[in-house]
Amino acid sequence: MAQTVKIQPDIQFIRELREAGGDSLKACYQCATCSVACPISPQSNPYPRKEMVWAQWGLKDRLLSDPDVWLCYNCGGCSDLCPRGAKPGDLMAALRNMAYKRLVTPSIIGEWMSSPKYLPILVAIPMVIFAIFWMIMASVNFHGNFTGGMFPTGQIVYGKIFYGDYIIDPFFMATLGFTLFTFYRGVKKLIAEIGPKGATTILGPKKAWYICLLEVLFGEIMTHSKFTECGDDSEKNSRKIGHMSLFYAFVALAIVTGCVATGHWIGRIPFLSMLYLDTPLPMWHPLKILANVGLVLMLVGLSYLTIRRVGLNPKKQKSNYYDWYLIGVIWFVGLTGMFSQLFRLADWVAPAYIVYYFHLVSVFMLFAYLPWSKLGHLVYRTAALTYVRYIGR
Ligand code: HEM
Ligand code: SF4
Ligand code: SF4
Which end of the chain is more exposed for a tag (fewer CB within 10 A), N or C? Predict the structure, then answer.
């Protein structure tokens, strides 16, 4: 017997989606060329045509719980071939942007991250915090380091002003804790929303979730295999080289930071004192070399991704504020990191401390707001890819 299905379009949602980058969705006439063109879309229930249809109908609930949004690699191949210029790739990106905004609280941060008009607030928060730290250290004789004012004389050691042990380290540890806890809530919500959608019957024993995670990490993320599969031939290499360089830059810098922090604290235990590390590390130290390799990889990756983005044809694929915020902040982190080192080696006191101050500001902007920024994909994509593998999509 025929059943009546009641559809309730959410007009406000369509408006928000268009603002977040899905502005061309009305042009779609549902021919499905995009789903056929997408090289990584599965055969059953392929994307992105169905998302275009749901978006036109304002079917918010379906779209918000759709795991496929996180499987799309934003290569733009589908948009290139769309006969109506409807940019389905941009719609998938817009849906991810909306997810960054709504998945976790406090939602005000999501609001601030969604538009350049709030950028001054996002910059002002760390500027004020680190300025207060600076003022305190410039005015008190803390741990006997006081050397008279804003720019301590003698060898440039950033810890003289941005004191690691009891100010900067605990502050960044708290920030990291906040970010990780926020991601934990975000992933929990994401998985709950997806639920069993797209699941297939798995013959034989079901794989444990951590096996699926390892397969995703080693089979897809570390090799960047999907970057090779999708996109047009002329630019997929630059995307892959750009993303891979940046990814391994972060891996290298995470290893360095982890080792330095561990050595710094563990090395205080008397029988482990040979592990003690303090900054600045000498230039020949293996961790310093790894840090500089990471820095070079970061600048190379950023150059590739920026050149590619600047060269995009806006009729096929548009860049939005989420794209530029992320690339911009990582540039800021990389360049201020590089100049902090160069000015310190050149013994250029005032510029060195000022640039280092901005380095801390940009690092905070990258990590404290991470779950609401486009870099949130680092966790949400990994979680969705693992989960769909687990349920057999
Ligand atoms: C440290 C880790 C990571 C960093 C620093 C990073 C950085 C970036 C950056 C800057 C972009 C923007 C490129 C552009 O605007 O053209 C990007 C895009 C992308 N990343 Fe990552 N990423 C990381 C981890 C991951 C992981 C784990 C995945 C999992 C599959 C992933 C998949 C992607 C995809 C598919 C895109 C293109 C989609 C888009 O631009 O919306 N990334 N990444
Ligand atoms: S987005 Fe374009 S290619 Fe895809 S179904 Fe609509 S009109 Fe066809
Ligand atoms: S942007 Fe690329 S990965 Fe995403 S749906 Fe289109 S063709 Fe597929």
Answer: N
